[in-house]
Specification:
Elements: H1 3-21, H2 30-40, H3 47-57, H4 67-85, E1 94-95, E2 98-99, H5 101-104, H6 107-128, H7 133-147, H8 152-165, H9 170-195, H10 202-228, H11 231-234, H12 240-243, H13 249-274, H14 281-292
Antiparallel strand pairs: 1-2
Helix pairs in contact: 1-3, 1-4, 2-6, 3-4, 3-9, 4-6, 4-9, 6-7, 7-9, 8-9, 9-10, 10-13, 10-14, 13-14
Bound molecules: geranylgeranyl diphosphate (GRG).
Geranylgeranyl diphosphate binds at residues 44-45, 47, 80-81, 83-84, 96, 152-153, 156, 180-181, 219, 222.
Length: 295
């Protein structure tokens, strides 16, 4: 199987996992479950759940089913997008090629659907790994920390503060990227590794460092696409950073400079993969394709 077929196969597994593991729209109250599914099934690259599944394969050992962990990560990622799009944050009306949740439903329903996805992620972990308490606890801890006030939410907080200043420093930008973006990519790999029975220690920490470099490269490419892409291709509003006079890699270094930074972190991610045991060829391909992506 070539890598692009493998990626499509993993994405189909994730779509199926969402279908099976998230409450159907017939569950009462239908409106909240409809809103959760609306945002979850709108597409998206599924990078984070694919990383969970790919990392679970690395050890070659008989892994615990990584699907609940993969869907839990996608639930948190989707909640963060819903909340980020709200009028009190980025106030956007296009996401994953569709009207944002608060445009499609209303603000209160969008807020609640984000809250529900955030909470549901942890139910998925508790139920999905109930037979192995140590694994469940480790997964919950990793995901709670990555999504919490020091990482995803902390990154978003500093992003909002930096927006108001519009002259954020290099160091502030690094904090935002590491936490708003890299945290969820790191934790996807670590959770996949845990499902694949990689024990806490050097192996898991190498996966985390790999995720950090991939996450930084991913965010810089996101900045470049915001400056150079169009809304139809991206499925979200392009050109928002410049309009908000936001400090980004593109603003600090220009598009070419930002590309060099993205390449540097991509190379560091690939070097990190050389230190990781198992067959890392698919992950190497995925890292390179994230640098070349157009959306
Ligand atoms: C509201 C707690 C909270 C956090 C919001 C996700 C986020 C943090 C903000 C959205 C804006 C943004 C640029 C975030 C950085 C991470 C990022 C690039 C998200 C988009 O991820 P993709 O491109 O999205 O993987 P898809 O739709 O493909 O899943």
């Amino acid at each position: 199987m070539d890598f692009s077929t493998k990626l499509n196969d993993l994405i189909s597994q994730v779509e199926q996992g969402i279908h099976e593991l998230v409450p159907p729209v017939t569950t009462r109250p239908a409106r909240i479950h409809e809103a959760m599914r609306y945002s979850l099934t709108a597409g998206g690259k599924r990078l984070r759940p694919v990383l969970v599944l790919a990392a679970a394969e690395l050890s070659g050992r008989d892994a615990f089913d990584p699907m609940p962990a993969a869907i839990a990560v996608e639930c948190i990622h989707t909640y963060s997008l819903i909340h980020d799009d709200l009028p009190c944050m980025d106030n956007d009306d296009l996401r994953r090629g569709r009207p944002t949740a608060h445009k499609q439903f209303d603000e209160a329903t969008a807020l609640l659907s984000g809250d529900a996805l955030l909470t549901y992620a942890f139910l998925l972990l508790a139920d999905g790994y109930a037979a192995n308490g140590d694994l469940a606890a480790a997964l919950v801890r990793e995901l709670a920390h990555a999504a919490g006030s020091e990482r995803l939410i902390g990154g978003q907080m500093e992003d909002l503060l930096a927006e108001r200043k519009s002259d954020a420093t290099d160091e502030e930008l690094a904090f935002i990227h590491l936490n708003k973006t890299a945290a969820m990519i790191e934790v996807a790999l670590v959770m996949g590794g845990l499902c694949g029975r990689i024990l806490p220690g050097a192996g898991l920490e190498r996966l985390r460092l790999f995720g950090r470099e991939l996450g930084l490269a991913f965010q810089i490419v996101d900045d470049i696409l915001d400056a150079t892409g169009d809304s139809a291709t991206l499925g979200k509003t392009a050109g928002k950073d410049a309009k908000a006079e936001k400090t980004t890699f593109v603003k600090l270094y220009g598009v070419e400079g930002a590309k060099r930074h993205a390449e540097k972190h991509t190379t560091a991610a690939l070097d990190m993969l050389d230190e990781i045991s198992g067959d890392t060829e698919f992950l190497k391909w995925l890292v390179s394709s994230m640098l070349e992506r157009k959306k």
